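Re: zinc ion structure - here you go.
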Amino acid sequence: MRNSRNASKNAFSAVKANSGATAADEPDGLWLRFGGVTAAIYWAIHASCLLAIYTGVNAVDVALCLGLFWLRIFGITGGFHRYFAHRSFKTGRVVQFLLAFLGTSAIQKGPLWWAGTHRVHHRHSDQPGDPHSPKVSFWHSHQGWIFEEAWGETRLEEIKDFAKFPELVWLNQWHVVPPLLMAFACYAIGGFSGLVWGVSISTVICWHATYSINSLSHRLGSTRFETGDDSKNNLFLALLTLGEGWHNNHHRFMNSTRQGFYWWEIDITYYLLRLMSSVGLVWDMKTPPASVYAEASANRAVRSVAASAKEAAVDVVAESVALASRLTADPSGTPTPP
Ligand SMILES: [Zn+2]
Ligand SMILES: [Zn+2]
C-alpha cells in the first residue's frame, strides 16, 4: 500500500506541476498549518463518540444528531458539491454564503478546498492524479487521502470563479468557525450529551456517508453509462446521502442539478433545491440533455440484446451437451430424437 500511496503522490506532483500552482500564496486552512493536528482531531472526534456510554441519550440528543446530519449533508451535497464544485444552478450572494457556511459546519474544511479538490477528482477519475482513487486502496479512497500532505492545500487554480469572493476566502481560511458555533449551540440546547450526539456522533456519520461516495460509489452498484471510470449507481448510498449515490449518472453529466436522472431515482437534495427554486432562492437548475437520455436508452437496448444472445447461447450449449450424452448412451451412433 505504501508504494501505491507514493505512486499516487507522484501522480499528484505531476498534475500540480502542470497546473503551475504554488503553495506559498494559497490561503491554507488551520488544519494544514498545524499539520498532524488534522489526524489527531479527526480520530479524537471518532473516539469522543464513546462518551455516549457515559451521557446516555434523550429525545433532544437524537433530534440534534439526525437534524444536524441531514442539514449538513445537504450543505455538502447541495452546497459544496452541486453548487460550488459543479455550478449546476445559480443563486444570490447571501444564499451562496449560507450554503458555504452550512457545508463548512460538516467539518470537511472550507468550500474552496472541497470544491477545488473535487474538480480534480472529475478530471482524473480513477486515474493517476485522482485525489481519492479506489484503485490505490479502499482505505485511501475513503479517508486515507485526507491526511496526505499533497491534498492539504486549497487548489485556488481550480476554483478561481469562487475565490474572487472575499467572504468565501475568509470562510475557507477560518473553516473552524462554523463547527465551533455549532458546538456551542449544541451545548446550549442539549448540554454535554447534546454536544456528544449533535457534534461527535452526527459528524462521524456525516463524514462516512460523504466518504462512501468516494469509496463505495466507485465499487458497488450498477453502471448505466460507460464513463471511463468505475462510478456506480447505488440506491442505498443515494438514500444515505440525499441523492449522491447516483454517481454513475453524475460522472456522465456532472453539471446536472439532479443526479437521479429518472423519477424513480430518489434524489432528496434535488427535491430540496427544487423547493428553494420555487420560492426564488436558487434558479437556472441544469438537467441532463436529451442526448444523455438517448444514450441511456441505447445502452439499455444493447444490454438487453446482449442478455438475450447470452441466454440463447446457453440454450445451444445445453442442447449440445444433452445430444452428446445421448450419443454416449447409444454407441451405435444413431441419435435418438429429443
Ligand atoms: Zn466520483
Ligand atoms: Zn462531482
